[in-house]
Amino acid sequence: MNRTTRTIKLTEEGEAFLRQARVALAALDAAVDTVATHRGGPSGRVRISTSWAFGREQLMPVLPGLMSRYPALSVEVDFDDRVVDLVRDGYDFVIRGGDIRDSNLVSRPIFRLNRVLVASPNYLERHGIPQTPEELRTHRLIARRFLGGQLSPWSFSAENGSVTTFDPANAAVLTLSAPEAVVQAARDGVGIGQVGVHLAWESLRSGALKVVLHRYHHAGDYEMVVQYPHRALMAPRVQATLDYVMEAFAKDKNLHVPLEALAAYAA
To answer: For the whole model, what pTM was predicted?
Structure first.
């Protein structure tokens, strides 16, 4: 360690030792859990971090079945939209959405996080249906602000295949940080908003929302993934939980709506 009168920090060698020690401890935990599993099934606590919207709408409905199948498991879920340090904060796995680039973690894709522009029929009756992306500048827009402070951009595909970016800030009448709040504001007729297809799908099917600029809007390159550390051995309690939730997410039709299906709900 490097030590001063105020701080203690690991040296480069200390960081390397800590990484290897964590691998060794994880392998030891997995070995102990394997013995316990042979006796009575997966047991122990599993810690998960996920966003509020995905956790409430997709993860929570899955947990009762998981705990019924594995009664010796206990599950702790933190609903937090910030990006957590999985190892430092002691999570077994996290569920994240966006442009995932962390190469220090194993990432298993859940679904493509496609986005769509939506508005209520009432709003479109009062303000008209935009026919081109340029017309959005004269509309009332609902923007989403990430926790880091930046606004989520809107992207559009041009005839030549290029992708252009539109900043909704200047025309935004409402800016929100929670994606489910953007859906609600759009349903209430506040304006046009960009949301994940999985969040808007039920509202589209019920007729509470309509797709706007479907021909031009670019769905993005984001995805929702499960991430966990590289480990020589994974504890059976974590493996059983991962397998169960991934199977449940694969069966959730709201998460796998094909983009071509949105055309039927276009304004």
So the answer is: 0.78
Find the helix packing angle between 197-206 and 179-187, rounded to 10°. Answer: 20
CA 58, CA 92: separation in Å to the nearest integer?
Answer: 18
- Residues 6-35 have pLDDT tens digits of 777 777 777 777 777 776 666 666 666 656
Report domain 8-113+222-255's class. alpha beta
What element of type H or E holds 183?
helix 179-187
**CATH code that applies to domain 115-220:** 3.40.190.290
In contact, 185 and 174? CB cutoff 8 Å: yes
At residue 39, the pLDDT reads 52
> Residue ranges of the alpha helices (H) in 70-143?
121-127
| Average pLDDT value for residue range 229-237 | 80
How many alpha carbons lie under 13 Å from residue 154 in its C-beta half-sphere?
27
Q: In residues, how long is the chain?
A: 267
Contact between residue 139 and residue 171 where contact means Cβ atoms under 8 Å apart: yes
pLDDT tens digit string along 112-127?
Answer: 999 999 999 999 999 9
The angle subtended at Cα 225 by Cα 216 and Cα 69, nearest 5°, is 130
Q: Does residue 100 surpass a pLDDT of 70?
A: no
Domain boundaries, the chain: 8-113+222-255, 115-220
pLDDT at position 85? 81
CA distance 98 to 244: 23
In angstroms, the Cα distances linking 3 to 6, 7, 10, 11, 19 are: 8, 6, 9, 10, 20
Residue 146 or 122, more confident: 122
Helix-, strand-, coil-residue percentages of the chain, each rounded to 5: 40, 25, 30
